[in-house]
Amino acid sequence: MVIRIRGRALPHGEHVDLYADGDRWTTDPVQNADLVAEGWLLPGLVDAHTHPGAAAAGDPLDHAVLRDHLRQHVDAGVTVIRAPGLAGEPPPWFGVDPDTPRAWHAGPWLAQHGQFIDGWGRRADHAELPALAAAQAARTGWAKVIGDWSSDGEPVPLDVLSAVVRAVHAVGGRVAVHTQQTAGGEVAVLAGADSVEHGMSLDPDLLTRMAEQGTALTPTLSVMARSVPEVRGRPDGPGRTWFLRGAQAHGSLVAAAAEAGVRVLAGTDSMPHGGIVEEVRALAGAGMRPHDALAAASWDARAYLGLPGLEPGAPADAVVYAEDPRSDLDQLAHPIAVILRGLPVRVTRR
Fold first, then answer.
1. Residue 52 pLDDT more than 60?
2. Which of 318, 324, 270, 326 lies closest to 37, judged by CA?
3. Predicted confidence band at 12 (pLDDT cuts at 50, 70, 90)?
4. Res 350 pLDDT > 70
5. Hey, CA dihedral for 228, 202, 150, 152, is it positive or negative?
């Protein structure tokens, strides 16, 4: 089966006519190709921060749950995910089965003793962290470090995290760092982490350095916003004050990061899975241009992971919409076609 899509392709908005030659786009016409959809074309959506495969925090990885979560992503138009932390080592079909997204992952989280979610991740002494992270990155390309935890947990020291980054880079990998403290965020940036995950309470003075050294920010803005009402209902205390102050300032931080030239990535960190549209809306609501908010969940995120867009030779992923989603982000919730690896996995005939 050879499929065909045509229409205006983002980000440039020019008309393209593409054929899927297996799992690669081509502009060479193919006789009897099935015209699946035409409209506004995106090179597939990306959720750059998701943890599929566990029914609840701390649960072990369940292969049936994993497949269900991945299908929810695809139904939302997500053709690529990055999982900076999984509840266990994924099965061989993860990221390659035809009906599931392409996937990048960091294996289990790496954390200091006494921190992070019980049942998830590996705890390690500071002396062990660089070698553990490098071994993980050598296998999968990424390592994920819990740089700080809760409002008062001590962050990973700068010399330790710097050693982790050097060790991972030496094997050709990249480091994602979870941080929600001002101190932990500073350590992540000064250590040269490749991506800051969440970044709540990050000092805005660090944004210029992030842009210069290529440290991306995955703010997971929508899940933080959803947590605010629940946290407000808790008794007063330092943890409540810390979270509410950071979460309420997070949108302004994201807008400032985009303005400073930091690469912002859209990630949901959410249950249920498949909530990427809500994250794009949150980024735009925080002050990012709709074009840039969409880039964070599509062509720019794909480029960050080394994937080209809608061009000859690129992987044959696409999402097709009836209208320009930059003019109406609600379009994102209603794709007329989702193409994954050259196959139509969702088509709404009009």
1. yes
2. 318
3. very high
4. no
5. negative
Q: How far apart are CA 163 and CA 216, in angstroms?
A: 19
Partners of 203 in the beta sheet?
A: none
CATH number at residue 32: 2.30.40.10
Same-domain check for residues 119 and 210: yes
Residues 203 and 237 in one domain: yes
Report strand pairing: 110-111 vs 102-105: unpaired
Q: Which of these, 126, 317, 104, lies nearest to 216 by C-alpha position?
A: 104
Residue 68 φ/ψ region, left for φ over 0, alpha for ψ in the -120 to 50 degree band, beta for the rest: alpha
Is residue 318 within 8 Å of 310, Cβ to Cβ? yes
Distance CA 320, CA 6 (A): 9
Backbone angles phi, psi at 214, to 5 degrees: 85, 20
> Strand pairing partners for 218?
197
Q: Tell me if 302 sits within 8 A of 294, measured CB to CB.
A: no
Domain enclosing residue 230, as ranges: 45-304
Q: Which of 295, 302, 286, 305 is nearest to 332 (CA)?
A: 295
* Helix, coil or strand: residue 299: helix
Taking alpha carbons only, the member of 348, 350, 305, 301 closest to residue 42 is 301
CA angle 338-342-347, nearest 5°?
A: 30
Residues in the chain: 350
The average pLDDT across 31-37 equals: 95
CB-based burial label for 306 (10 Å; 0-12, 13-18, 19+): exposed
Taking the CA of residue 144 as centre, how many other CA atoms within 13 Å lie in the half-sphere pointing to its CB?
A: 25
pTM score of the predicted model: 0.97
